[in-house]
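Hey, does this match?
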Amino acid sequence: MLDALKFAFEILVVGVLALPWLAVLNRIFRFEHDSDFPIGLSSVPEGARGAVTVAIVIAFGYLLGSAVSRFSRDFFNDELWKPLPTEDMIRDNVYYDEFCSEHAFVYQYWSQPIHLEPPSDFCPDKKTKEKLLRGKSEELAKFSELDKDQLESFDGKVQEAFMLEESELLLQGLDKVDRLKQYYDQITVLRGAAFNGFILLLLCVFGTCGALRAHWSGHRILRLLTFLPAGSVAVFALYRSWMHLHGAVQHHYSDPPLAELVILLLAGTGLFVTAKAEAGVPYFRFCILAAVLTAISFGGWWWTEVMYDLQVIHSLPELKHPTAPAEIMTPPQAPPTNLPPALKSPTAVTGSMPDSRKTATPQSAR
């Protein structure tokens, strides 16, 4: 049991972080005759009920955490959030800074033995390599100055290079990529926390609108305006879903509209909670708390993605070209000082050695 918890610890943490918005949903869809859900442990022996209950909780937590982890990865890597940073956009910027900006000119001199040189056509600007070799780093194009075609071509090269480098590192064994796994686990937890916080934030925003609708019972126009946030999100989700399905005619199964589906479900829930929310629930306070937690988790995920990509870039050359500082930095040893004077001089030592060709006496001379 403990080994299973260690194996899926970050997944279970993500599942536990989903409990706040599940509690809000339970409060929203609570009916008058609410009853507890029967687990059905009556047929289980009394001595084994505790272990079975723990197994059910772990299974449900792993299921929820796995779903949230997969949805969160697609959610924060969808193009509908541009110009906000996505996973691919962060990686493109990191690779551009490492190989195609003025920092690459510094690496050429300081890290030549341990850095792999990128291909000549890797950078979007074809003259970048020539400019770097001439030392004209101030003339390099910035990442924000690249056009759409250059960005798409560069993104494809970066994603392919990253997947190959990451796969080669993972094949080295856990003992060599332990720090890389730590970053990956942190990315899973922080990204899942940001996704859970975003769901909680939207639900609380819709709940606040519902509380305002209940408070403005005598103002018909204001009561109708409270449906505007949920309605706007629903229209946006429908439009993005149509755009996604229209543009993904050839690859429906490889690129599912998970982000659009999440937003559409939240919008439908928002319309319901706006119409049925209670005025006594402090949704606005929950909004502030959810916004702070989401911003902190999103910022932590952003920076951890940068650190993870940098670790992949710098670790692979180290494994391919290990340095030997002992051979480079060790100075030549001086001869011992406690030897006799005759042995300190190389000529003296050579002269003291007998030459067999000079000392040997020919048989004919005898």
Q: What stands out?
A: Confidence is low (pLDDT under 50) at residues 105-116, 324-334, 342-366. The longest helix spans residues 178-215. The radius of gyration is 33 Å.
